[in-house]
Amino acid sequence: MLYESAARADEVLCLNVEDLYLQRGKITSKGGATEWIRWQSGTAQLLPRLIAGRTRGRSSSPAAGRLRAP
Prior knowledge:
Elements: H1 2-5, H2 9-13, E1 20-21, E2 24-28, E3 34-38, H3 41-50
Antiparallel strand pairs: 1-2, 2-3
């Protein structure tokens, strides 16, 4: 994703699951502006594996966004 989008690593690591779309993601750039990054179909096909079962939270954290029983 870093190579395909040319985004900064910290921007990609801060992506939230709810900000991911088929071939683009909404990031907050270094200056604080909201921007869109795009990636190719290979990354788009792998993203569902990364975020499987999650509906919110950071996309880079395996446990982030998982709903827990009270």
